[in-house]
Amino acid sequence: MESHNCGSCGEILTDGVRCTVCSQDLHFHCAGITEAGFRKLGDRKLSWRCGKCKQSGMNSTLAPSSPRIEPDSLVLKEIKALAEKLEPLESLRDEVVRLRKEFAELKSAVDDNTKEMKAFNTRISLVESRLVQVEKSQSQIDQIKIRLDQMEQEMNSSEQWARMNNVEIKGVPQTARENLFDILAKIGSKIEYPVTKSQINFITRVPTREKDRTKPIVVCFCNRYVKEDFIAAARLVSKSNPITASLIGFSENHRIYVNDHLTVHNKVFWRRLRKRLVK
């Protein structure tokens, strides 16, 4: 098709349709038909008529051209120009829709983070409150520990004071019908410090934490000074001639120890002290 003007909009036309009645060449969109639709008409293209010719009932005997209606052309031009101006707005609308979606997602994420922060702050406050309680409890526990240590020291001192007249003898074999007074008298004879019953408040064997070990003998003297002299005499003799079970009539020959009757706390203390001194 040669290049000329559209019979409807007046714009340059390079491809379009031609009315078989008025012989006007029209753009496809001005003719109200798509290019694909026009191609599908086949032989009916030879009798195709524009919209005006269809309305007016014109036939092929009419003049090959009809006067243009200028107002319609102007309206179409304005519509086309407006469509061209509005075309960028479509992409802008899509962008606005996308931004709205992103803002909605961002707001949802911010709301979730806000909720999490509130929950986190609540947990932090709870932890801080508990820490304050723990600190108070720890302070009370420390005070209780101090008081317990004081009470333990007081009890240990009181218990050791009650043992002030006591002597503990270890290493003496235990028999079924033993006479502890006779055993003590034999030990007194060996250390050259005789002991009479009138000087003794009581004498007995006491349990030990180690079940397999022989129970030690505890002697409570009526006088503290007698106790001190008895221990001093035993230590003096032991330096040159250690006291053994065989010296007082037993078949065993292991050593016999004569010491102060210490509390458990004091025994542990002196045991640890001796280990440090040995190192």
TrEMBL record:
Presence of the UniProt keyword Zinc-finger in the record: yes
Top-level taxon of origin: Eukaryota
Entry keyword set: Coiled coil, Metal-binding, Zinc, Zinc-finger
Listed PROSITE patterns: ZF_PHD_1
Residues spanning the membrane: none
A GO molecular-function descriptor: zinc ion binding
Coiled coil spans: 89-161
Record-linked PANTHER family: L1 TRANSPOSABLE ELEMENT-RELATED
Protein name stated in the entry: Uncharacterized protein LOC113508714
Lineage: Eukaryota, Metazoa, Ecdysozoa, Arthropoda, Hexapoda
